[in-house]
Specification:
Helices cover 61% and strands 0% of the residues. With 455 residues, the protein is an all-alpha fold. The longest helix is centred in the first third of the chain and has 30 residues. The chain is globular and about 80 Å long.
Length: 455
C-alpha cells in the first residue's frame, strides 16, 4: 500500500481545455446580456443625455432672464407644485402608495427640508445668472468636499485615503477654475467675481440638505412624489420670503423694495418675449434683455428637469449608485463641451481657454480618485458587496438647486442596542477569565443581537 502511494505522481495529469475562439467569446458575451442589462444601459444613456440638456437649458433660462433672477427662482419653485400635486392626488385616489404612516410624518421636517432647499435654490439662481455655464459646472463639484466635512462632524462618517486625496484635488481644481475671475481676467464670459463666490456658497446648504435628509428620513420609506410635493411647497413659500436679500446685492440681482412691482412687471413681459431693458445696458452688471424664446427655454427646462430626475431614480432602482456617480463624472466634460458650441449656445458660447481646461482636468482627476475611494470603501463595508447598491438611498432634488452632483448615501452609525442582564454578566465573567456558555458558544439562541439585522 505504501509503495502504491509513493508511486503516485506529484502532479496529476489534466486534460487541457480547448482554447476559446473569438466567436465563442462573443456567444458567451451575448448570453450574459439580459433584458435587465439592456434596460440599465438605456436608462444610463438617457440619464447622461437628459443631464447634459438639463444643465444647458438651465443656463439658457438664466440668459433669457438675466435681469430677473428672483422671478426665475419663484417660477421654477411654484411651477413644480401642480406637477407633483397632480401625481400625489392620483396616488391618493387610485393607489395605496401613500400610506397612513407617511401622512402622519411630522410636517415640520418637510418645512425644514424646504427651507434648506429654498436657500440652496436661491443661491444657485441668483449666483448662476452671473456665472458662466462651464464655471458653474466646475464649482458644483465643491459640493463633494463640503458634504464630506459635514458628514464627518454630524454623521461621524470616515473616509478612505483616496477619497480624501480626491476631495483635496477637487478643491484645487475649483481654485484654478476661479482664478480668471479672481484676477479679473474673465473676459467676455459674463462672470462676476462676487456672484461666482456667491454661487460657490450653495455647496453649504446643499450639504446641509443631504445631512438633514439622511437624519430625518432614514427611518421612513417615503413615497418620492409625496416627499417632493411638500418639499417644493415649503420651498416655494420660504423662497418668496428671501426677496429682502436682493435689496443688498449688487446688480444685476439688486432689487430695492420700491422697485419690486416694476421688476416683476418687466419679468412678466420678458416671459412673453418682450424686451424692456434695451438702453444704457450691455454690461455684466446690467445686461440688455434677451427675452426672445424665454418662455420656451423655461418650459423645456422644467420638463427636462423632471425627466432627468426620473432617470436618476430608474438608474438607482435597476442599476446602482456607482453607475450613477460614474455617469455623472462623464457628464461634466460633455456638458462643458456643449457650452463651447455656438450651434447650441448661440451668442452665449464660452470658448475653452488654458485655465478652464486645466481646471476641468484637475477636477476630473479628483472625481475619479474620490469615486475609486468610494468603491474601495464599499467593498470593505459590512452589508455591501461592492456593486454599489448597498443601502444607497438618494432623494432627488428638483429645480435649479437640484441633483447636479450625486453623493453616495452616507451610512449612518448603527443602532446601539442596550445590553441585557445576561450580556452584562457574560461580559463581566469574561473579564475575570471565566468562560460562560453565552460567551463561549455562539448559537442561534445567543442573546447578542447584531444591530444590522434589525429592520
Amino acid at each position: 500500500m505504501r509503495g502504491e502511494q509513493e508511486s503516485q505522481p506529484l502532479l496529476l495529469a489534466y486534460e487541457e481545455k480547448p482554447k476559446k475562439t473569438i466567436l465563442d467569446k462573443i456567444k458567451e458575451y451575448k448570453q450574459g446580456i439580459t433584458t435587465q442589462t439592456i434596460l440599465v444601459a438605456i436608462y444610463t444613456l438617457l440619464y447622461v443625455i437628459t443631464g447634459v440638456i438639463n444643465s444647458i437649458y438651465l443656463k439658457k433660462t438664466f440668459n433669457s432672464f438675466a435681469n430677473y433672477g428672483f422671478y426665475v427662482n419663484q417660477v421654477t419653485n411654484y411651477g413644480y407644485i401642480p406637477i407633483f400635486g397632480s401625481v400625489v392626488l392620483f396616488e391618493v385616489l387610485f393607489t395605496k402608495l401613500i400610506t397612513a404612516e407617511q401622512r402622519r410624518f411630522p410636517w415640520y421636517k418637510f418645512l425644514i427640508m424646504g427651507a434648506i432647499d429654498a436657500l440652496n435654490g436661491y443661491i444657485v439662481v441668483i449666483g448662476g445668472v452671473s456665472t458662466s455655464g462651464p464655471l458653474a459646472q466646475l464649482l458644483n463639484q465643491a459640493i463633494i468636499p463640503v458634504t464630506m466635512v459635514a458628514s464627518f462632524f454630524f454623521l461621524k462618517e470616515r473616509y478612505t485615503i483616496p477619497q480624501l486625496l480626491g476631495a483635496l484635488v477637487i478643491v484645487g481644481g475649483v481654485i484654478i477654475s476661479l482664478y480668471p475671475s479672481l484676477a479679473n481676467k474673465g473676459g467676455n464670459t459674463g462672470n462676476i467675481l462676487f456672484f461666482n463666490l456667491f454661487y460657490l456658497t450653495q455647496a453649504i446648504p446643499f450639504a446641509a440638505s443631504n445631512i438633514y435628509k439622511d437624519i430625518a428620513f432614514k427611518s421612513v420609506d417615503m413615497d418620492v412624489w409625496y416627499l417632493q410635493f411638500w418639499d417644493v411647497f415649503y420651498q416655494s413659500l420660504i423662497g418668496t420670503l428671501l426677496f429682502p436679500i436682493n435689496a443688498i446685492l449688487p446688480k444685476p440681482a439688486n432689487m430695492p423694495f420700491s422697485e419690486i412691482p416694476g421688476v416683476m412687471k418687466n419679468a412678466w413681459q420678458c416671459t412673453k418675449g418682450d424686451n424692456t431693458i434695451t438702453t444704457n445696458c450691455g454690461t455684466d452688471e446690467l445686461p440688455c434683455d434677451d427675452c426672445h424664446g424665454a418662455i420656451i427655454n423655461l418650459l423645456i427646462y422644467i420638463a427636462i428637469n423632471v425627466t432627468y430626475n426620473v432617470f436618476i431614480l430608474l438608474v438607482i432602482k435597476h442599476g446602482s449608485a456607482t453607475i450613477l456617480s460614474i455617469c455623472q463624472t462623464i457628464r461634466l466634460p460633455l456638458t462643458n463641451i456643449c457650452f463651447s458650441q455656438g450651434w447650441i449656445m448661440g451668442d452665449y458660447k464660452i470658448d475653452f481657454n488654458n485655465l478652464s481646461i486645466v481646471g476641468l482636468v484637475v477636477i476630473l482627476v479628483g472625481l475619479v480618485g474620490y469615486r475609486v475611494g468610494s468603491l474601495v470603501k464599499k467593498k470593505t463595508t459590512d452589508g455591501v458587496d461592492g456593486d454599489g447598491s448597498g443601502d444607497s438611498k438618494i432623494i432627488p432634488r428638483f429645480g435649479p438647486g437640484g441633483s447636479e452632483v450625486i453623493m453616495e448615501a452616507v451610512k449612518t452609525m448603527p443602532l446601539i442596542i442596550p445590553k441585557t442582564d445576561q450580556q452584562q454578566r457574560s461580559q463581566y465573567f469574561t473579564k475575570l477569565g471565566i468562560l460562560t456558555v453565552a460567551s463561549s458558544t455562539p448559537s442561534s439562541s445567543s442573546p447578542f443581537v447584531d444591530p444590522r439585522s434589525i429592520q
